[in-house]
Amino acid sequence: xxxxxxxxxxxxxxxxxxxxxxxxxxxxxxxxxxxxxxxxxxxxxxxxxxxxxxxxxxxxxxxxxxxxxxxxxxxxxxxxxxxxxxxxxxxxxxxxxxxxxxxxxxxxxxxxxxxxxxxxxxxxxxxxxxxxxxxxxxxxxxxxxxxxxxxxxxxxxxxxxxxxxxxxxxxxxxxxxxxxxxxxxxxxxxxxxxxxxxxxxxxxxxxxxxxxxxxxxxxxxxxxxxx
Length: 227
Ligand code: CA
Prior knowledge:
Blueprint: E1 2-6, H1 10-22, E2 26-30, H2 33-40, E3 49-53, H3 61-70, E4 77-81, H4 86-94, E5 99-102, H5 107-120, E6 128-131, E7 134-137, E8 142-147, E9 150-155, H6 158-168, E10 174-175, H7 177-184, H8 193-209, E11 216-219, E12 223-226
Parallel strand pairs: 1-2, 1-3, 3-4, 4-5
Antiparallel strand pairs: 6-7, 7-8, 8-9, 10-12, 11-12
Helix pairs in contact: 2-3, 6-8
Protein name: Response regulator
DNA-binding region: 126-227
Domain OmpR/PhoB-type: 126-227
């Protein structure tokens, strides 16, 4: 799952990004409302949700929400702000925000609000993703399968989890390294395509532990395909 974080306070932005990374989210962090608009409207990147500070240079968080809704972007938006008057909350929600978190807040509360937003939006994933006998658990990041009546399981790293989730939601499609880089690596991280190949090798090793390495096929000269 990919989150756009829009926060102009460096310390807070750094702390939020760190905790989101720890919880296996892909995070792009920008510090300006206008830049956020450009990120959210990029054609080749889709965000699961946005965490947006109210007071920002460029567009304010409220203006960003309004503009997104006017242009029919439906991604869930969590507004962060030091304002906590009733009137401000109403203004935030009226602008199209889905939820509202008053600073200072605990990271556990932020994570809980994000989980709630994911649950509320029907297009988002349930607790587990299942393909045939493979089950990927969003809570534990454990991949499991039933073999000869026994459950076998293996724990995935953040990146392995993100890549496998992408494949399991694009069954049978040829997926290029460029697609994986665009969707699963933070923008500005400037990874090379070797990074993708290396991660695919690691993921195959995990799949092999469960006897499922045949599912991830290399399509020579094009990319990868998951069956
Ligand atoms: Ca701010």
